Amino acid sequence: MSNFKKRWNITSNWQVFVILVVFAITGSSAALLSKPILGLFGITKQATSAWIYYPLYILLIFPVYQVLLVSFGWIFRQHDFFWAFEKKMLRSIKLGFIADWIEK
Questions:
Q1: Is residue 25 helix, strand or coil?
Q2: What average pLDDT does this structure show over 68-91?
Q3: Cα angle vertex 76, ends 84, 89, to 5°?
Q4: Confidence band (pLDDT; 50, 70, 90) for 104?
Q5: For residue 96, what is the enclosing H or E element?
Q6: How wide is the angle at C-alpha 33 spanned by C-alphas 17 and 89, nearest 5°?
Q7: Kind and range of the H or E element at 58?
Q8: Which residue, 66, 71, 55, is CA-closest to 93?
Q9: In this predicted model, what pLDDT tens digit does every residue of 38-61 receive, in sequence order?
Q10: Is the per-residue pLDDT at 90 higher than 70?
């Protein structure tokens, strides 16, 4: 726990616990929500080749995860931590302009 607290610049074990719970909920939710979103566009396992379906599914998980991470962070009162985490992640994959655009 102390490694997480130092690395993430947080003070309490409770905050570490809440952050880890948010990461867990977000990952599961992103995977669950991506399938119905693909279904809205008529892309289903039955109607689409696996070579097309699974890459689209995996690509869709990424933006859904990003939105959910900040949303669940806000719900669990850790918005500042997750917004900073999100900006760092977007900048590391050369999409920092999105974070800059949102902050304006």
A1: helix
A2: 91
A3: 25
A4: low
A5: helix 96-103
A6: 55
A7: helix 50-75
A8: 66
A9: 999 999 999 899 999 999 999 999
A10: yes
pLDDT digits (tens, 9 = 90+) for 16-26: 899 999 999 99
The neighbour count for residue 96, using CB atoms within 10 Å, is 14
Contact yes or no for 18/9 (Cβ under 8 A):
no
d(CA 19, CA 22): 5
Handedness of CA 79, 72, 22, 27 (dihedral sign): negative
What pLDDT does residue 32 have?
A: 95
The letter for the amino acid at 52 is: I
Total length of the chain? 104
Closest of 100, 102, 103, 90 to residue 63, by C-alpha:
90
Read off the amino acid at residue 29. Answer: S
Largest distance between two CA atoms of the chain = 50
State whether the Cα torsion 91-30-72-10 is positive or negative. negative
Confidence of residue 1 (pLDDT cuts 50, 70, 90): confident
User: What does the block give as tokens for 45?
Assistant: 């396992």
